[in-house]
């Protein structure tokens, strides 16, 4: 049985220009493929002036002013990777790799062959202040929402677009997933990582519970890969026809408001049906080696962008991964990974923990 290590799993998921879809080649077609120069890969940060040959009925025509698109801006951050949709002006998807170490507030242990950082030095590097006052490296109070200047100005989400819009600036990659450094946390506040979300009952409540559920999976799995995908799903109208209807905010109206949001999760841990090999890194005695055979679990949750009761069962939002892929026009995982994966809710308890921290803050503020 082949082995699927963490790096391979994540690479297999990112088949949208930043991944390795060629790891599992498909069967070659019987008919020859014409020798045509393909459009260039997506730019990073939108700063790319491309020229490409595009096939036409009369042959190939040179687009002297660059390939027109559609082009997603591939954003490689400290704690995540994302593709920004210029038309909708929010992420098309974001991707994260969560581990117990990545979510920790302290620096990761040194790798083999290097001198370990003394404990007192590591603590000083991770905190600031004196006495009993401790400030963690990733401090949310120091982060502010900001426009992403790496996105062309014409397609860039602006701070004023959200002002009095009635929607929260909803993180696709939450700040709590990026505690490892202040820079990592700050990068989650770029508007290129934001989409309009209903505030009360969703962004501040049930959606936050789902984000917490993703983080808690790292207590049972070594590696947790999370895709967050804004969706635009059709609804049946009074005349019996299906239509996609959504609001657009901003001045002028430019930022689309998704009807739904999806979290697609792939989690892995050692498969104890096979002999296990411990990690060669002495700093990770409880981890398995990278070539250990893994047990894979996959799940997809689609939530409507509206108020959701706290008592709603998380399992009621489970959908096949293929449904998310088809609705978003993405291929998140190849068939080999899907075929080897168990249903996430069959191997772990899919349940949110209700924490109404914002209500507590409101109560304190009133007092």
From TrEMBL:
Annotated stretches, region: Disordered: 26-53, 102-133
GO cellular component, as recorded: mitochondrial inner membrane; nucleus
Binding site for Mg(2+): 203
Comp. bias intervals (Low complexity): 26-36
One annotated GO biological process: apoptotic DNA fragmentation
EC number of this enzyme: 3.1.30.-
Domain spans labelled DNA/RNA non-specific endonuclease/pyrophosphatase/phosphodiesterase: 76-339
Entry annotation: catalytic residues: 171 (proton acceptor)
Record keywords, A-Z: Endonuclease, Hydrolase, Magnesium, Metal-binding, Nuclease, Signal
Residue ranges of domain ENPP1-3/EXOG-like endonuclease/phosphodiesterase in the record: 77-339
Cofactor(s) needed for function: Mg(2+)
An example Gene Ontology molecular-function term: metal ion binding
EC top class, as a word: hydrolase
Organism superkingdom: Eukaryota
CDD domains: NUC (cd00091)
InterPro entries xrefs: DNA/RNA_endonuclease_AS, DNA/RNA_non-sp_Endonuclease_sf, Endo_G_ENPP1-like_dom, ENPP1-3/EXOG-like_nuc-like, His-Me_finger_sf, Non-specific_endonuclease
Residues making up the signal peptide according to the UniProt record: 1-20
Family recorded in the similarity comment: Belongs to the DNA/RNA non-specific endonuclease family.
Name by which UniProt lists this protein: Endonuclease
Organism: Kwoniella dejecticola CBS 10117
């Amino acid at each position: 049985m082949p082995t699927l290590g963490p790096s391979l799993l994540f690479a297999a998921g990112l088949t949208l220009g930043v991944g390795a879809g060629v790891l599992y080649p498909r069967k070659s077609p019987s008919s020859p493929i014409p020798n045509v120069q393909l459009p260039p890969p997506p730019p990073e940060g939108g700063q790319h002036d491309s020229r490409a040959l595009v096939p036409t009925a009369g042959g190939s025509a040179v687009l002297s002013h660059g390939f027109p698109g559609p082009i997603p801006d591939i954003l490689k951050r400290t704690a995540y990777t994302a593709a920004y949709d210029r038309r909708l002006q929010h992420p098309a998807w974001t991707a994260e790799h969560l581990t117990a170490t990545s979510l920790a507030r302290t620096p990761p242990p040194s790798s083999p062959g290097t001198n370990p950082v003394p404990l007192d030095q590591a603590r000083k590097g991770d905190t600031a202040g004196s006495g009993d006052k401790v400030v963690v490296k990733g401090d949310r109070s120091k982060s502010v929402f900001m426009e992403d200047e790496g996105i062309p100005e014409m397609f860039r989400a602006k701070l004023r677009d959200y002002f009095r819009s009635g929607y929260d600036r909803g993180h696709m990659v939450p700040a709590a997933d990026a505690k490892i450094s202040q820079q990592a946390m700050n990068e989650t506040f770029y508007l290129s990582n934001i989409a309009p979300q209903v505030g009360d009952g969703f962004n501040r409540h049930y959606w936050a519970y789902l984000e917490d559920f993703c983080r808690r999976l790292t207590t049972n799995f070594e590696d947790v890969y999370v895709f967050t995908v804004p969706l635009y799903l059709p609804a049946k109208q009074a005349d019996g026809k299906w239509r996609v209807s959504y609001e657009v905010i901003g001045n002028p109206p430019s930022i689309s408001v998704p009807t739904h949001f999806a979290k697609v999760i792939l989690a892995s841990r050692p498969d104890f049906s096979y002999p296990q090999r411990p990690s060669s890194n002495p700093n990770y005695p409880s981890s398995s080696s990278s070539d250990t055979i893994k047990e894979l679990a996959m799940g997809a949750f689609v939530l409507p962008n509206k108020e959701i009761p706290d008592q709603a069962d998380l399992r009621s939002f489970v959908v096949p991964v293929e449904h998310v892929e088809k609705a978003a026009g993405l291929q998140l995982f190849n068939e080999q990974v899907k075929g080897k994966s168990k249903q996430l809710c069959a191997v772990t308890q899919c349940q949110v923990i209700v924490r109404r921290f914002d209500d507590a803050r409101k109560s304190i503020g009133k007092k």
